[in-house]
Structures are given as structure tokens and as C-alpha cells.
Amino acid sequence: MMVPELISKTLQRIPWFIDLTPVQLESLAQIASLRHLDPGEVLFNEGDSEDGLYIMLEGLVQIEAHVPGHGVLKLHSAEPLDIIGWSALTPVVRQRTATARAEGKSRLVCFNSQILYQLCEDDTSLGYIIMRRIANVAATRLLVTRLRLFEIIHPSDEQMPIPLA
User: Fold this and answer.
1) Residue range 14-28: mean pLDDT, rounded
2) What's the whole-model pTM score?
């Protein structure tokens, strides 16, 4: 099977795209590529320029960020069907806000973020579906990051003083 056909069939199996028409799916397949990562391989580093949006197909990728005074902290473990690099579709963000490192052999589908952004602009139906999905991912990741920051500020209940009532 040729790579474009493989990508097209792969996209059809991703629930994220269930609401898309066959023409929209084919448009996405035309700008997609497959990416394989070996254990420990870095997909992108914090501070890199935004260039792609990724959907995990197989494996596990750790999302981590450097926090001054605390070192590198794990923020999220991306598993199959998770989105990585979603901020590439937000026009304000110009660089990666975290590092993505493979925990094991991983396979991802990659979309060129500039072309994907333009597809969303040109086909507002596609854009609405994609951005609605991205908004849900962003909201979830912000909540998880907020909880992780609370853990940093207050490491455990045992170390916290008992409030006087």
C-alpha cells in the first residue's frame, strides 16, 4: 500500500475526524505524513518554532517543561489518539511551550500546521470541527497543568500546616 493511501485509511479510523466529509479527509491526508520515534527521541523541544500538529497512533510521548527552580517537570503523557502540538494552530503562539520525548517506540501522524491552518480558514466547516477539538484539548491540558502547578506549590497535605478554624 502506498503511503498516501495508508495515511488516508489511518485518518478514517481516527474518531477525532468522524464528522468530516470524504473530501475534507482527503484534504487532510494530502498534508499529512507519518512520523516514527525511537525511545528517548525528541519530537520537538521547548522553544522550537511551531511547525506541526501531531496525533498519536501508537506508543507514549512525554510532554515536559522546564520550570525555574524545579527543573524539568512532566506535564502530560500522550497516548494513542492524543493530540500533540495543538498550539501550532493558535496564531498567538510562535514557539513550542514544552518538549515532547518518546518513552518507547511511537508512531504519529503529522500535519503541517501552516497548511492545516490555511485549510481551516478556507473551509470554515472543517475549521470549526478542528478548532472545536483543539479547544477541548487545550482546556483539558490547562486544567491538568494547573493541577500539576498546585502540586508544586503544595507538595502534599502532610507538609502543609493545619489551618486554625
Assistant:
1) 93
2) 0.83
